[in-house]
Design a protein that fits this description.
37% helix; five-stranded antiparallel beta sheet; D-amino Acid Aminotransferase, Chain A, domain 1; alpha+beta; binds adenosine-5'-diphosphate; binds magnesium ion
Length: 393
């Protein structure tokens, strides 16, 4: 990015100050429209401008198995001047001290089917959208579009999802605020898996406890989605996962249902099949699965790094077997006091994984945790009961 853009992104923007347990802190809004939020009348709450569609979702969610994973909805509040109406929500930041926050928008597209078909009604050539396109990628327009110096809105909408990881990974980073107070929304073209890995690594840098907690919570969310009537009956578009951690805690919540709509009664979706115009698939599970996979990869890499850093102290002078042997010994003997036993065997679902399979040469038990819990027998929900979440961190 240009120097100016960098500067703009470092500048702190604080919509308001929040007070909780007598602590005053600047509230963080990472994405969305400025002016949509203000401090709530009750401690530990925020007000978001009323969007009737979103309120409807929150009302359903308060009775759904997903309730522990969304902010508590506490009804409507009118502004003092009576001009606007807000919904009062649990402030997810209030239990954290100087939190690091990340907003990831989930799904393979961020517009509704109806927005696309509306854009297709009168597809005029748009110069402004052409300009935006070439600002990001000079080669994105076709020869014809270059000649016309314009692109249509539906063409622009579909293209825009391909510059980030939205269309390929089913999620994109919207914004990150780190513990030093700096924040960035400069992720519009963060697309490759490597770029995302690096961003996640940086986000959790210095907070080694956060990564395994995030992975566990994401897996709990994935397991719960399977049982959710809300999830079964809705097309979840433009919704985010909000990641929050500080030195002691870490958690994830589903937020932003302003564009989430009930599916037509005759339509059922899998949330993990490819979207084609008209099939209503949102790719929500594609995003969740990739998030779990990428977080696990970053965590595994860090675990291996920590282990190898400790090896010199454990190696015998005549040991010529190298790293693999040392790693195996570490895993078997549990000599390691920094890495708790729980973080070792559960970090990943991939069986080619040295760490994960250290005690398991047959690889027969290298399954993601939630598969073990939920299993194939969906009529049995005992697994889910063990997994019941909470909406506190
Ligand atoms: N309940 C909440 N607690 C804490 N922060 C929140 C909460 N809801 C939203 N935010 C913050 O506000 C930002 C925008 O919220 P969102 O609901 O996505 O608004 P919009 O509909 O304008 O996109 C999020 O990225 C997050 O930083
Ligand atoms: Mg949003």
């Amino acid at each position: 990015p240009s120097g100016w853009r960098k500067l703009r992104n470092i500048v702190q923007w604080t919509p308001f100050f929040q007070t909780y347990k007598k602590q005053r802190y600047p509230w963080v809004q990472l994405a969305g429209h400025q002016g949509n939020f203000k401090a709530g009348p009750d401690q530990g709450t925020v007000l978001k401008k009323l969007c009737p569609k979103e309120e409807k979702c929150f009302k359903v969610l308060m009775k759904d198995v997903l309730r522990p994973y969304v902010p508590e909805y506490k009804g409507q509040v009118n502004s003092e001047d009576g001009e606007s109406t807000y919904i009062q929500l649990q402030d997810l930041l209030s239990d954290f001290y100087q939190p690091c926050v990340m907003d990831c928008k989930i799904g393979v597209r961020t517009y509704l089917e109806e927005e696309l078909s509306k854009a297709k009604e009168k597809p005029k050539l748009r110069k402004d959208m052409y300009e935006k396109m070439i600002q990001i990628d000079q080669n994105a327009p076709t020869e014809e579009e270059h000649r016309a110096k314009g692109v249509t809105k539906p063409r622009y909408m579909v293209w825009r999802e391909t510059i980030s990881s939205t269309s390929t990974l089913g999620f994109r980073i919207e914004g990150i605020k780190k513990s030093d107070g700096t924040s960035s929304k400069d992720f519009k073209t963060t697309k490759s898996r490597d770029q995302i890995c690096e961003a996640f690594r940086e986000f959790t840098d210095g907070f080694p406890h956060a990564m395994p907690k995030y992975i566990q919570r994401l897996k709990a969310i994935r397991a719960t989605l399977e049982y959710s009537e809300f999830f079964k009956s809705h097309e979840v578009i433009g919704s985010s996962l909000l990641f929050v951690h500080d030195r002691h805690k870490a958690s994830v919540w589903l937020i932003d249902f302003a564009k989430t709509v009930a599916l037509p009664e005759t339509v059922a979706i899998t949330h993990d099949s490819k979207w084609k115009v008209g099939n209503h698939e949102d790719g929500y599970l594609i995003g969740i699965n990739n998030l779990i996979d990428i977080f696990s990869e970053v965590h595994d890499r860090q675990t291996v790094q920590t282990l190898t850093e400790r090896i010199p102290r454990l190696s015998l002078p005549d040991d010529s077997n190298g790293i693999d042997e040392d790693l195996e010994r570490l895993g078997r003997c549990n000599l390691n006091d920094e890495i708790s036993p729980t973080t070792l065997p559960t970090v990943s679902g991939r069986c080619g994984d040295k760490i994960n399979c250290v005690n398991n040469n047959n690889n027969y038990d290298c399954k993601p945790d939630d598969q073990k819990l939920v299993g194939s027998n969906t009529s049995d929900s005992t697994g889910l009961r063990d997994f019941v979440g909470s909406n506190s961190a």
